[in-house]
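Reviewers of the previous submission asked for a worked example of the structure-prediction workflow described in the proposal, so we include one complete record here. The input consisted solely of the amino acid sequence. No template or homolog information was supplied to the procedure at any stage.
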Amino acid sequence: MQSLDVKARIGRWQARSWVIAARALLGNSGSLVARIAGRLPLRQFGKFCLVGTSGLVIDMAVLHCLVEWFAWNVSLSKFCSAETAMLSNFFLNEFWTFRGVAEAGAGGRRVALRLLKFQAICGAGIGWAVLLLNLFHRRLGISLYAANLFAILLVTLWNFWMNAVFNWGGERRVHGEFAIED
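From that input alone, the workflow returned the following structure tokens.
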């Protein structure tokens, strides 16, 4: 009887913890989500997400091919699939999402520098994605593809924020904010 009481208390405590966390993230106008959303240039973020969706399809397809058809290690396959998607995403972002900024900073050297910055920023994101993929898949038992999707979704905000500020934002930064498209 007492073990049921302890389990019930733990269950209530966990439920309260989730409610507190949800309120902190979604609660009032001073919440973390509200502060981040208030600073996002939504049109560019939408384009970034569409580009990211194409990258997601590429990532999933390459991951599937390498793991299922060629029996590669999951971590190595994830690095390769993410790098393939990342290169595709860079060029789509360069010529569509941040086109105005890219045109202002056109030229082979500037494009190459943005590619290097994109690689560094998203490379850190890939590291997080691999860590999260293994955590979700191996530790929590989530299916490989669902775990990969969760990892990608969590890394998306990092990639957008850092690239908008430090990569494409360098040409037209206003008051330290994003490079907002006209």
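Residues 108-139 form the longest helix (32 residues). We consider this example representative of the routine output the project will generate in years two and three.
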